[in-house]
Amino acid sequence: MSERSLRIAIFGESYLPYLSGVTVSTEALARGLAAAGHDVLLVVPSPRGGRQPGSAGAAGPDPRTVWLPSLQLPRPAPADYRVPRPFPSGALRAATAFVPEVVHAQSPFVSGVMARRVARRAGAPLVFTHHTRFGDYRHYLGPLAAPGGSLLAAYLHRYWLGCAAIVCPGSELAAQIGERLGARSRPIVRVIPTGIEVAAIRALAAVDPRPHAGWPASSTVVAALGRLAPEKSVGLLLEAVAAVVPTLPALRLLLIGGGPSQGALQARASAPDLEGRVHLTGQLPRVEALALLKGADLFASASRTETQGLVLAEALAGGLPVVAIDGPGVADSVRDGVDGVVVPAEPVAERAARLAAALGDLGHDPARRAALAAAALGGATRFSAASRIREVVALYRELLS
Predict the structure, then answer these.
(1) Across the chain, which distance is largest between two alpha carbons, in Å?
(2) How many CA atoms does the CB half-sphere of 262 hold within 13 Å?
(3) Could you tell me which of 5, 24, 22 has the C-alpha nearest to residue 13?
(4) CATH top class, domain 199-381
(5) C-alpha–C-alpha distance, residues 273 and 323, integer Å
(6) DSSP 64
(7) What is the mean pLDDT of the chain?
(8) What is d(CA 43, CA 36) in angstroms, rounded to the nearest whole number?
(9) Close Cβ partners of 388 (under 8 Å, ≥ 6 residues apart)
(10) DSSP state of 141
(11) How sure is the predictor about 147, in pLDDT bands with cuts at 50, 70 and 90?
(12) Residue 105: helix, strand or coil by DSSP?
């Protein structure tokens, strides 16, 4: 006899059409739970000007959605990044009337406070997915970075204590939160990475980036996908490629995505040592970005601010070997020496050189690239969205029992 379905309210601080790891994960959770037969209510900020949210490619039925009144944050927040207005609304009343059995917050801020309030009124456990390493974004506060970081840490600690469970997409973040909480019976801290639609990525037709960028067909293409921002250390990739080019002239770098660093990166790419070898696509629809990614030969990441590194799993599912600097979430996705190469992060001054060496080794060795690619494809089922949804539902039932 199958277990009964659950009523689950999911609260998000941001949502589609803005693309980020968090919005992609939120959609995947909502659609995945609905596909598994659960009654899901998605409570998220409304898009700008009545736009439709669309989809980032998650499988499952359109979630039943109520829209929170929203506002666009000023720069450096990206366009279409809308957050909830912090006051009562019809959406909140609808969420309360839904009487959820579980409330799942995707943020600890405005929507997270709303989620906590609805959970208390319904007598439901509050689950919080800690998607973001918020401390890594303190540089956006300028001179307020130090005091702002301390206040944020204190606030997060208080929010954690109000949760029945904290879901961490990566094991390193889970260990850090567990250490800060100490020996407590609540909340439960559980590692459950965001799943991906492995079969859909495998079935996606690859798009060759070489004609788009004006590169020779013989080029060896290294791709990176994500927001172009200081915390992602994309500039390090350019320096690594510049170091490899003298011994591997066929190497090219494809940067898929947009962000505040795009202008500076384009300027660096125009320097004589990289001219014609780096192509920036700007922001693309998700499916188009993944198709272009699959047309590359390698995937590279220098980011040290991830919780899971969802794009690492997507690259591996697309059959790309990964070269990544060791950091949060990397070991949860990349099997060093099996489907990728994990570059030591220390000493800091040698990161670019170590990354260059790894790219150069694989760039010169097509046979090894092929072996890593085969292992990436063969092992990608471990990222399956359906299996991750089952883990989340098991956590819900554990809390309700």
Answers:
(1) 67
(2) 17
(3) 22
(4) alpha beta
(5) 22
(6) E
(7) 93
(8) 19
(9) 32, 192, 193, 194, 195
(10) G
(11) low
(12) strand
Which stretch of DSSP H or E encloses residue 176?
helix 171-181
Going by C-alpha positions, the residue among 164, 67, 173, 156 that lies closest to residue 108 is 156
Residue 65 host element (H or E): strand 64-68
For residue 263, how many C-alpha atoms fall within 13 Å in the half-sphere facing its CB? 1
Q: The whole model's pTM is what? A: 0.90
List the structure tokens of 347: 């000493």
pLDDT single digits (tens) 295-317: 999 999 999 878 778 899 999 99
CATH 3.40.50.2000 domain extents, the chain: 7-195+384-400, 199-381
Q: What confidence category does residue 1 fall into, taking pLDDT thresholds of 50, 70 and 90?
A: very low
Tokens at 63, concatenated: 């979630």
- Given a contact cutoff of 8 angstroms between Cβ atoms, the answer to whether 344 and 327 are in contact is no
Integer Cα distance of 221 and 295 in angstroms: 8
Residue 141 clears pLDDT 60, i.e. is over it: no
Half-sphere exposure of 2 (CA within 13 A, CB side): 6
Q: Which residues are CB-contacts of 117 (< 8 A; sequence separation ≥ 6)?
A: 92
- Say which CATH architecture domain 7-195+384-400 belongs to: 3-Layer(aba) Sandwich (3.40)
Would you tell me how many other CB atoms lie within 10 Å of the CB of residue 7?
A: 16
Per residue in 187-233, pLDDT tens?
999 999 999 999 999 999 999 999 999 999 999 999 999 989 898 99
